[in-house]
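@channel sequence for tomorrow's demo:
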Amino acid sequence: MTTPALLDTALSLAAHDVPVLPLRAGKLPFGNCPACARNACGGRPSMKAAGPCACPRPCHGWAAATTDPHVLNSVAWAPAWRHAATVAYHPGGAGVTVVDLDDPAAVQWARATLPATRTVTTTRGEHWIYRGTMPSSNAVRPGVDIKSLMQYARWLGSGAGVTAALPDAVRALTVKDPSTPRRASQALTVSLRAHGGECPHRTPAYLDRGISMAVQRISEARSAVHATVYRTFLAVLSTHGRCGCLTDTHVNRLFTAAQAKGETPRHCTDAWTNALTTLGL
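C-alpha cells (generated this afternoon):
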C-alpha cells in the first residue's frame, strides 16, 4: 500500500474513533523524534520516562495511537508515514480485544473453544475481535496472544462476522495461579504515596489477581524488558495506586519478577518512581 493510501486508511479509521499509528517494517513503531529514534528511550510511552521530545506527546508505541487528524497529518509524523509499511491501531483505545491466533492449530483451538465473533485473516492465522477490553498478554497458550490495553495490532481490514461481547473464556486465558514468589534481592526503596481514598475493589482477591497478572506479564516478556516493567508498573498504579490497597509485599512481588528478568534494583526503583510521577501520585 502506498504512503497516501496508508494515511487515508489511518484517517478513515480515526474518523470512526479507532486510534491509529504507522508501523515500519517488522511491525515495529516509529520513534517520531530524535530522542526516541531506534528505541533510544527504551520504548516507554511516557514523556517523563523518555526524556525531552519535540513531537506530539507521547511520540510512539501503543500510547501514540491517536484519532486526531491534525496529529496524523502533522509535520512531525510525516517521515513516519513516508517510510511506513502498514497501519496499526490500539485495540483497547477502540474498545475491543484481539485474540491473535498465530497458526492453524491455534485457529482450530479457537473454533472449538471460543464464542464466534468477527474474524480477520492474517498472514499466518486469524484475529478474533471481541467487544470489550482487558489487559494484554503474550503467549497465553501456544500460538495465542491477547492484544487490548497497552498494546497495538496491525489493521488488516474490517473482517467478517458480528463482533461479540468479550467472553469469560478469553479473560480467563490471562489468569494463572500465582507461583510462590522469590525473595526480593533488595527491599522496597520507594514510597507508595497512597492517597488513602475509598477503595473501589470488590474483594482482596481482585487486587491479588491483578498483581499476579502483572507478575505474569513481566515474567513472560521476551524483549524490551525495561519497557514492559515500566508499563506494567504504570498499569498497576493506575488501578490500585490511589486507594491505599498496595502494600510493600505487593510491590516486592513486582520488583522480584522484574529482577528475575535482569532488571537491577535501581531500574525497578526508577521505573516505579517514573510511573508515580506520570500518574501524579
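heads up for whoever presents: The longest strand covers residues 96-101.
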